[in-house]
Amino acid sequence: xxxxxxxxxxxxxxxxxxxxxxxxxxxxxxxxxxxxxxxxxxxxxxxxxxxxxxxxxxxxxxxxxxxxxxxxxxxxxxxxxxxxxxxxxxxxxxxxxxxxxxxxxxxxxxxxxxxxxxxxxxxxxxxxxxxxxxxxxxxxxxxxxxxxxxxxxxxxxxxxxxxxxxxxxxxxxxxxxxxxxxxxxxxxxxxxxxxxxxxxxxxxxxxxxxxxxxxxxxxxxxxxxxxxxxxxxxxxxxxxxxxxxxxxxxxxxxxxxxxxxxxxxxxxxxxxxxxxxxxxxxxxxxxxxxxxxxxxxxxxxxxxxxxxxxxxxxxxxxxxxxxxxxxxxxxxxxxxxxxxxxxxxxxxxxxxxxxxxxxxxxxxxxxx
Length: 368
Description:
Layout: E1 26-27, H1 30-42, E2 51-57, E3 60-67, E4 69-71, E5 76-77, E6 84-85, H2 90-103, H3 129-133, H4 152-161, H5 176-190, H6 194-206, E7 226-228, E8 231-234, E9 257-258, H7 260-269, H8 278-285, E10 289-290, E11 297-299, E12 304-308, E13 312-320, E14 324-331, E15 336-343, H9 352-360
Antiparallel strand pairs: 1-3, 2-3, 2-15, 4-5, 6-9, 7-8, 10-11, 11-12, 12-13, 13-14, 14-15
């Protein structure tokens, strides 16, 4: 891998580690070439593909390349340093922040929500942070639109007044509401903003200078634009946000901006102790509850975990608002990482990461 680091959206603080280099344009080896051909062909079709793919194996980035345009009107190329909306790939960061605070003795995942948030009614008195982390609190998926101007206090009241779908702890049901409540807990425990906590406890130690809501001070001209039915939807920064990030129907459950290079750096950080101690990392990635009764996928603390014959264990999360789509997958048995993102294709390319996975691990023997 050529040790060339393209400029990040914001220089890292002086006391932060130097970001792990990622050379945009890397296409190294047969697997990388096969994947590259697939997406080069997609850019020649209508609607043309726009996005980025990064694949690393055995500690080496073999493919790191953008395809199409981050801004079609201005012909701005998509690169590994293009910021984009990562959707629900935000959830692993929220979960990591909660676990970091637990390691610091500021909370426990077994805490009742009522210990940290006021006004919890009787039907929700048994909900714990573990339930929120694993989507087993019984809360609804959503209670409003991503850009509805709802502040934290009003959101918490709305969430706590919502009718439960299930008794807490009974079953897995995906809930954006639950993760936004975790964001509120983070703010209560730290006495500061959600994003500030992530920056100080996760992003800076991992060398992520181009991940966040507002703190990176984005050059808006570099942020990827979304497209719906061929029409320019703009960037997330063009839509209603509060001064410190999205409103609370989106905050902490989605909407972080990041780059392919930074998501790779995060995956690498989860293999070391710079951000989370090993025992905490193990809990972060460990399967907790089945996503379907009798199913073969489990939800961990902010991650989905599954087993495959070819790739072994896959720990990942994806996210989409119907315009942007992102997918981060870590393969601990292969020492491999896949980052995929696209804009403007709706859900057309939803299964492309599965196709990449098949190509990448078609013939490789499992690591001992």
